[in-house]
Each structure stands twice: as C-alpha cells, then as structure tokens.
C-alpha cells in the first residue's frame, strides 16, 4: 500500500456536509451493493448535517486539489463512520483517518461493521481491532448481520465473543 503524501486531514465543518454525504453514498454503493437503501439521499444529507457533524468529532481527508477523499467520525468511544471515496482505497487515506481517530480517543475504540464487509473487517483487524460480538442484524436499520470490534491502545480487547 503506497501512502499518498498529498493527503491532508482537517476537522470537518458544516460546509462539508454535502461532500461528506456524496462520499458516504458513493462508498456504500460501491462497497456494499447488497445493502438495502433505507434512506433517501436528502434524508442522508439531513442526518450528516444535523446529527453526525454536530454530534461527533469528524475529520476529512483532502487530496492535493482539495477534493474530499474520505471522512471519519468519533462519537464518544465509538468509531461511528469511516468511508472513502471509491477509487481511493489502498493509498493510506483510511489509515491516516483511523490513526487520527485513535489519537483523539481515550485509548479504546469500538465499531460495528457488517459481517459480509470482508474488506473493512480485514482493514480493522490489520489495525489491531478484535471481533468481540456478532449480531443477527436486529440492531441496525439494514437488518444485516454485523460484528462488534474493539481496539485498545494496550492491544487487549475488552470483552469477547464467538461467531
């Protein structure tokens, strides 16, 4: 994986809502085509604008020309979102965003990802996250089975679970 040295991270602003929404929607369509669409694009923009941006710490990754390549959000001890624009994978942008979230954390993080999202699962496992619980999908809007991951700065995951 080659690190893209032209990537710059910064705190997201309210003015980033539309571009963050575009990245979110494009990433999910490309990486998770099996997911049902449970919200319109307009509702997703409203959620990003009125829930995600004001309710969590959000960082964006920008390319050399200022284009938004991805974003990540931290809500308490949960990595709530990490999405990259399709075509920007395996360039180090996700790692930069994840490292920023880890630095901002209190030394531990949890996150959910869909069980079928093998690329995300491999990414998080490479970065020290451990699967600790599996769910049948009843806890998320898409009704898609997911997995809870945990990371601690000490390298030990709290809790445990089996598939």
**What's the multimeric state?**
single chain
Structural class of the secondary elements? Answer: alpha+beta
Number of strands: 7
Rg is: 15 Å
Q: State the helix count.
A: 4
| Separation of the first and last Cα atoms | 30 Å
Largest sheet: 4 strands, antiparallel
CATH superfamily of the largest domain: Gcn5-related N-acetyltransferase (GNAT)
Explain this structure to me?
- The chain has helices spanning 17-31, 41-55, 93-104, 118-126; strands at 8-11, 57-62, 68-75, 78-84, 108-114, 130-135, 146-152.
- It folds into two domains: 1-106, Gcn5-related N-acetyltransferase (GNAT) (Aminopeptidase); 107-163, Gcn5-related N-acetyltransferase (GNAT) (Aminopeptidase, 3-Layer(aba) Sandwich).
- The strands form two sheets. The protein has a four-stranded antiparallel β-sheet with strand order 1-2-3-4, sandwiched between helices. It has a three-stranded antiparallel β-sheet with strand order 5-7-6, with helices on one face.
- Strand 2 (57-62) and strand 3 (68-75) form a beta hairpin.
- With 163 residues, the protein is of the alpha+beta class.
- The protein contains four helices and seven strands.
List the helices and strands and how they pair.
Layout: E1 8-11, H1 17-31, H2 41-55, E2 57-62, E3 68-75, E4 78-84, H3 93-104, E5 108-114, H4 118-126, E6 130-135, E7 146-152
Antiparallel strand pairs: 1-2, 2-3, 3-4, 5-7, 6-7
Helix pairs in contact: 1-2
Pick out its properties.
2 domains; alpha+beta; 163 residues; Aminopeptidase; disordered C terminus; 3-stranded antiparallel sheet; 4-stranded antiparallel sheet; 7 strands; 28% strand
